[in-house]
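Reference record
================
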Amino acid sequence: MRHTVKTAAAIVLLGWVAPAGAQGFLPASPGTVNWSGPYVGLNLGGEWSRLPGRVGVAATPAGAAPGSVAVGASSAGLNNNNSANVTGGGQAGYNWQLNNIVLGVEGDIRGGGPSNSTTVGGGSSPAGTFQSSSSWNGSVRGRVGYAWNQFLLYGTGGVAFADASLQANYAPSTVSGVAVGGHSASNSTTLMGPTYGGGLEYAVTPNISVGGEYRYTDYGHANLRLGSVATTAVAGGTVVSSPATGRIGLDDNTFLLKVNYRFAAPPPPPAMEAAMPAPPPPAAPRVFIVFFDWDRDIVTPQGMQIVQQAADAYKSGAPVQIQVTGYTDRSGSAAYNQRLSERRANNVARALVGLGVPQNQMAVSGRGENDNRVPTAAGVREPQNRRVEITAP
């Protein structure tokens, strides 16, 4: 239980820290795969498990039926060592890439699981079979990885869940001269414990990756009440019922082959953001272009260099009114893009004021997704269209 609490706390902390930290870092270097964003996928592999279990029938006390005497308790158990089975299912998650470091959260669910059986009963209880089994498991985990070229090497850890069932099937029999009918006693529970491991992913395309992952999981143990079992009080030859209980545990080593589809992440900004060359005629207006990240209105360090050039150009000549006009690409609604373009223009204007350009010397406006530098269809994220143009006559 201590491992479960610590692992759960680590996942909660990661869920709070990773989104906040992702706002303050640059994306991966140009030329590498961008692992950021949501993804879904399928997995298939093998489990090597231990599924120990035990079922016990309480002692029959003296006087439980007329003429009866006490009968001792009976029990049977098994220790399933290195049982192998096929498992498979799906996963979904989200990554945040900070330079070459990738932080993420992932959940998965799989079907298939171990089972085992042994003989139960005999003596004062009917003989039969006892079975322990698990049919599904899942987990919620954090991931920390290092990306280079098309590869992502990562470690993972969190909390795992699995179902676990016990069933004792008693066959019809005659015990101490008394007929005891066939019956069963069973119960199930959900086990929970820590899981940890690591894996390697390879990006086949910008959106599809394949990889392998190993994890060890200790789901812990649980005690179960199985109901009542028909037994006989030996001296009286009378059928009585005694309570049955059980205990079950599970741990496994798992290797999975995984295929993931990553939804499109925002494309990286242009490698260089530079002012367009001034046209030859001296009377022609000078245009300075500040580019923006997708769906952002914050002026980047590269953009501030362009703003500084525009401010220097203004202060080197006679004071004239300059135009500050914001634009967006076409990857959003027209109303949202209009507001985004205005925010971008206002942020550039504030930066110019901070560099000594008077506010009353600027005409600030937003044009939304109109007047694209690069004509595109609706919904296309074109970096050249996410801009603010500073025009000085």
